Amino acid sequence: MIIQNVALGNRGYDIFIGNQIINSITDILHTLNPNQKSVVIITETNVADLYLKMLNDVLIEKGYEIHSLVLPSGESTKSLLFFEQVMRFCLQHNVERNHALIAFGGGVIGDLTGFVASTLRRGCRFIQIPTTLLSQVDSSVGGKTAINSLEGKNLIGTFYQPSAVIIDIQFLKSLSNRVYRSGYAEVIKYGLLGDKQFFDYLRHHNDLFLVRDTHFLMNIIAHCVKMKADIVSRDETEQGERALLNLGHTFGHAYEAETGYSDILHHGEAVAIGMVDAAEFSYRLNYLSLSDVSMVKKFLVEVGFNITIKDYASHISAEIILKHMMQDKKVSNNQMTLILLNNIGHAFINKNTDIQVLSDYLFNKIL
Ligand SMILES: NC(=O)c1ccc[n+]([C@@H]2O[C@H](COP(=O)([O-])OP(=O)(O)OC[C@H]3O[C@@H](n4cnc5c(N)ncnc54)[C@H](O)[C@@H]3O)[C@@H](O)[C@H]2O)c1
Question: What is the value of pTM for the model shown?
Answer without folding.
Answer: 0.96
